[in-house]
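DM from R.C. (forwarded with permission)

"hey, sorry to bug you on a friday — could you get me a structure for this? deadline for the figure draft is monday and I only need the backbone to look sensible"
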Amino acid sequence: MPFLTVDDEGNYLSCPECGSSNLTRKGYKETKDGLRKQRWLCSYCNYRTIYPARNSRDTITENVRLSKQKQGYQDRNRIERKSFREYARVENAVSELNKNLIKILTKHKLSPLKRLKKENNSCIGVLQLSDNHLNERVDLPHNTFNYEIAGKRLKLLTERAKMFFKMYGVSNVLVAFTGDLLNSDRRLDEYLTNAGNRSAAVFCAVDLYQQLIRDMKRSFNLSVLSVSGNESRIKDDYGWADVVATDNYDHTIVNILRYIFKGSDIDFIDGDPMEKVVDLGGQKVLFIHGHGRIKANHETAINQIKGVYTSRGINLDYVVSGHVHSARVGDTSARSASLVGANDYSEKALNLESRASQNCYVFHNNGNRDGIRIDLNNVENIKVGYTVAEETQQYHAKSYDKLHEPVTIMKIQV
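My reply, with the result:
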């Protein structure tokens, strides 16, 4: 509050009744001891006094400093309390997801793994699983996607991949998960109230992938690699919790697979959760999801990525990515499409035509490399695919509703 009135001694004056500093001189008053005192009139409450409150400049300066300091403490405490509340909500939500995951893993037992040993070190195969978006539902005239279709498409992918690898005499195969395995909602209120759906979706994904891995293991020696995508993150601001779940469903799913196959000879490759470089037949291959790294001009982005790694002393031979939902197998890089194929968003919002497919590669010791796109759009001939228990197929109602545009019906009264 600014002080408008100053006495002859330089003190800042204020009304002792209301605290206003808008005082005016209003004559004099003689005290009982014969002293002549200045009378002051408060312009705000009309209170008259010869004893106004007097404040020195130093006192006011110190009071203002203390008030600002107090306000600063209050602001910091408010921010810290808000940050803690948000952290606690995420922590509680992820812990609840952990409980549901453990409950489902305890209830449902998976089949044991049979070991197979054979070697052909002249080449190595790669089966890429990218942008599978499990737990998404699509109902279009020309494309349907749900857990049943996902199981059939993964089964078809396995059959075609086996044919491709056996043609080259491959005995060692790398199963590469390159992100966005699960379709998820990241709004905090939805996540807090749907841990059951989330844990069921994670279990369904694990169940489908463990069947694929067991199927591939019957014919090949396997290694597993995983990098996380952007759509499978739990929420925009990451939180951390113990046991099974972290901040990304991709990481969660592969960690559960690692736990399931811990007694086998399947090698789960550790490293950077966002991008990994693997030596395949003497060729340095980078696996990434592609968000952030790869821009509109694909070739330019790949060259820039290679330049960054070259500065670190790593000369990349090939880059494998996903994210764009559009398949491409090139000379120095490749990207996979989606397991889902066309949906309402891609067609109505982005004006894109899409098909379900995934990629396979063979890297040879002499530096050659072969790759194919396996079309998975039509699975009518697949009578039985990989399956999940019906009681675990819980779709998020809000996610399903997002796939459908509202229809307005106009009623005309005659």
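R.C.: lifesaver. Confidence is low (pLDDT under 50) at residues 189-195, 237-245, 396-405.
me: no worries. The first strand starts at residue 5 and ends at 6.
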